[in-house]
Amino acid sequence: MPPLPVLLYHSVRDDPPGWLAPYTVSRAAFAAQLDALIASGRTPVTCGQIAAARTGGPPLPENAVAVTFDDGYLDFERNALPQLAARGIPATLFVTTGALAPRNHSLLPDVAMLSLGAVARLGAAGVEIGAHTHAHPQLDTLHPSAAAWELTHSKEILEQALGHEIALAAYPHGYSNPRVRELARDAGYRAAFAVRERLSPETDEPYRIARLTVKSDTPAARFGAWLQGAGAPVATPRERASTLAWRYYRRARARVGIPCPLAESR
Ligand SMILES: [Zn+2]
């Protein structure tokens, strides 16, 4: 079974605030990417299908692809969903519950967020909803009890609003470590998604499924290569030394209260 591209989007709009712009895809670029996805002959699958396949369930179709969105921006419903629906492409939306309208706790400044009611409506309409913590912290820098709370509180809020189990999580910024992955399992998630900028192989860890970030400057050629199962490394269980060094650096920064950019991902 060839490795699978799991695409990670944040925002689809033409007028993003500056801090979000690098992680925003214009409406025209998004439409072109979805057309390329369809033209590639890949079969869009849900993250739930990936989770099942990675935990001994039914295998994915050959040439699967998945489309995910992090954070819960209002433009998902306005700009992304109509384009997805027009092509019959399923999507998974990982929601930061503490950033939802009208609260938004100033977590994600100057940007319109979905409300919890809208998320429930999207879920009822067939969008797969996952949790993306409550306050969007770097989970691997938190005390385990705080990280556990982030994972369970967001899950409970969504489960109450949607009326069914929330089985999937995505780590803010993609950051996790073995302890965080254990906490995600203990919280009752069946799988969790990281970033890693890698294709996800059949052997990918269920609590660290690799995704590829689609950014404002992602060239069409690279996007096309991902759809060919190329253009990015295939995820392996071993953590790169640079990832570990970067984590210690971020932990030190978190301790002295220097924020990292919210959409930064690794
Ligand atoms: Zn996020």
Automatic annotation (TrEMBL):
InterPro entries: Glyco_hydro/deAcase_b/a-brl, NODB_dom, Polysacch_Deacetylase
Organismal lineage: Bacteria, Bacillati, Actinomycetota, Actinomycetes, Catenulisporales
Protein name, as recorded: Polysaccharide deacetylase family protein
Origin: domain of life: Bacteria
Domain NodB homology: 63-266
Signal peptide positions (record): none
Species annotation: Actinospica acidithermotolerans
PANTHER family found in the cross-reference section: POLY-BETA-1,6-N-ACETYL-D-GLUCOSAMINE N-DEACETYLASE, PTHR34216
GO aspect biological process, one term: carbohydrate metabolic process
GO molecular function: hydrolase activity, acting on carbon-nitrogen (but not peptide) bonds
Assigned keywords, A-Z: Signal
